[in-house]
Write a structure and sequence with these properties.
metal-binding; N-acetylglucosamine-6-phosphate deacetylase; metal ion binding
Length: about 375
């Protein structure tokens, strides 16, 4: 079906100005939205919301980004089925040759979106520039960062986001250098205290990687890195699988961080049965609703973004607020002004949901999955 013959999609459409009941006209981009302002609680029609944006994706469908080859395409297809229309392919702490292999495959996938796949916007380099004392489920290959190495990685695949432990020697200066180069820096896998967090933000750090996890927590006499985030951050990512972070802590972050947004931190186990999977060089186990190392350490998740949305609404957020947390805020964070919202000229990335918030259809750049 060509763009000029595609029929509009009708329902309750979430626009930047609020809900409209009417029709969304589109090709590869949104052509227009016709209708009237409405409270969707007053009718039984479907919800049409911006496509989900996930900046922290390690895997899915049994595949891991660090494999290289066609893994990014398989992973992007799995998450597209769950409403993710664009994502950042996320790496693991690993030897340089492993990172090179992964980035070469990701770079090729960024250049050519396959049919039925989410758009891979670039890379979230989560490691190796982290603190070896806060590895979490990262393998033990952490090391100091150097700008020339980062730029060599950037030549293989576009670096959109890099997780850094700012307390490591030389990393505070690197935060400023990367920010000037147009690469977002997140604070994560860190043993830095409150003052280090505040200083990193002042140097240009933009957010925090999986808030609360792999960083010093909040104490009233030692606020830690979490305290720096809650007191000063505009953006931070959080994993709302209700396993990584207690709902009460999520509510605290929602009150403190204006543009808190959701990520899945999904692994190869996403969309798969219980069993063993790879996360970089480590074997992980999907069991009891989560993913763990052999010692029980949480190791990413099996979360998908449609479930993240349902979890937020289940906590009491409105669909509109929850939609911003799984889409718009992440788009703004990455500077993607034509994604994460439904308005004329934006990419036709949207999800059609039934009244129970289950997916009925996904459209990516106008393509219906």
């Amino acid at each position: 079906m060509t763009d000029d013959t595609r029929r509009p999609i009708k329902g309750n459409i979430l626009t930047p100005a609020g809900w409209v009941h009417g029709a969304l006209r589109f090709g590869a981009r949104v052509d227009g939205i016709d209708g009237r302002r409405v409270d969707p609680a007053n009718n039984d029609d479907v919800y049409i919301v911006p496509g989900f944006i996930d900046v922290h994706v390690h895997g899915g469908a049994g595949r891991d980004m660090m494999e290289g080859g066609d893994a990014p395409h398989v992973i992007a297809a799995l998450h597209a089925k769950h409403g993710t229309t664009s994502l950042l392919a996320t790496t693991m702490t690993a030897p340089v040759e492993d990172i090179d292999r992964a980035l070469s495959a990701i770079g090729a996938a960024c250049a050519a979106r396959g049919k039925g796949e989410a758009r891979i916007l670039g890379v979230h380099l989560e490691g190796p520039y982290i603190n070896s004392g806060k590895l979490g489920a990262q393998p033990p290959f952490a090391r100091e960062a150097h700008l020339d190495e980062v730029m060599r990685f950037h030549a293989l695949a576009p670096m959109k986001l890099i997780t850094v432990a700012p307390e490591i020697d030389g990393h505070m200066a690197l935060v400023r250098q990367l920010t000037k180069a147009g690469i977002r820096v997140q604070i994560g896998h860190t043993n830095g205290d409150y003052d280090v967090g505040v200083a990193a933000l002042a140097h240009g750090a933009a957010g925090f990687t999986h808030l609360f996890n792999a960083m010093p927590g909040l104490h009233h006499r030692d606020p830690g890195m979490v305290g720096a985030a809650l007191a000063h951050a505009e953006y931070a990512e959080i994993i709302p699988d209700l396993l990584h972070v207690h709902p009460g802590a999520i509510r605290t972050a929602l009150r403190c961080i204006p543009k808190l947004f959701c990520v899945t931190d999904s692994t190869a186990a996403a969309g798969m049965p219980d069993g063993e999977y790879m996360l970089g060089r480590q074997v992980v186990h999907k069991c009891m609703g989560g993913v763990r190392l052999a010692d029980g350490t949480l190791a990413g998740s099996t979360l998908t973004m449609d479930q993240a949305l349902r979890n937020l609404v289940g906590m009491g957020l409105s669909i509109e607020d929850a939609s911003q947390r799984v889409s718009t805020h992440a788009a703004d964070y990455l500077g993607e002004t034509r994604r994460g919202r439904l308005a004329p000229g934006c990419h036709a990335d949207f999800v059609v949901l039934d009244r129970a918030l289950n997916i009925k259809a996904v459209y990516i750049e106008g393509e219906c999955l």
